[in-house]
Amino acid sequence: MSVQVSIIVPCYKQAHFLKDSLQSVLDQNYTEWECIIVNDGSPDNTESIAQKWCAIDSRFKYLKKENGGLSSARNAGIGISKGEYILPLDADDLLHEDYLTLLVPELQQNPSLAIVSCYSNFFIENISNIIHKQKPIGTTYHALLYENNMMATSLYRKKCWEEVGGYDENMKQGFEDWEFWIAITKKGWEYKFVETFLFYYRKSKQSMLIETLNNHVESNMEYVFKKHSEIYIKQFDTTMEYLFYLIKKHHTSENKIKKSLEYKIAKIIAKPYRIVQRLMIKK
């Protein structure tokens, strides 16, 4: 059987979710796939779980490497892949059984498409507990400039990965998929969303995305804006509007905090300490 799709599953400290993710791969009604499990130097039992799945079905492959981050792990897996199409899948997320059946033909039938994605369900603990449904829109890079509305788990042509030199391994704090989509689509490639819920994104209290949103949004945006400055300069007025919107939003949030009862109480409690601090400085 020929391999049309290479599913790349990086795993780092996610061994406890890996079984469910790989089961969703095995359950695919479309069969012409290989699944490369990339152990990104994970300190847990990723290796033993991966090897069990390789024994269950020969379409599962295992690659072990030193820890290098998500971009590095994806690139390593894609580097040994055989498929014409690539599907990244994080070790804690799940695919609907018809994911490949419905998405692969979109790329086969439309040579102008680089990427095809779908609607997504966000869940907690199990897929019966859906907390959010995402219905993204867009076909060109213009819809991706200021916000990534396409999931990292989207099907794309391997030659697009080759054209842009893979995922940017300098981006170790998230948003690497956003930058990757921009790099591809700014070359003129288009993408499409199949209007069916075929992907399940696990929402957890601690994840790489939560860490990124809490601590690295601004630095990641700056990196992407600078790396692809030519397209942001083309959209100069819109880019300025967006940046000033963010500034205004920040100030509004800051003023709201200062007017809150909690802030006023904390300010009163802290006042004696500030007085003592000033006296100590004068001495």
Automatic annotation (TrEMBL):
Pfam families: Glycos_transf_2
Record domain Glycosyltransferase 2-like: where: 6-126
SUPFAM superfamilies from the UniProt entry: Nucleotide-diphospho-sugar transferases
GO molecular function, one term: hexosyltransferase activity
Signal peptide: none
Protein's UniProt name: Glycosyltransferase 2-like domain-containing protein
Lineage: Bacteria, Pseudomonadati, Bacteroidota, Flavobacteriia, Flavobacteriales
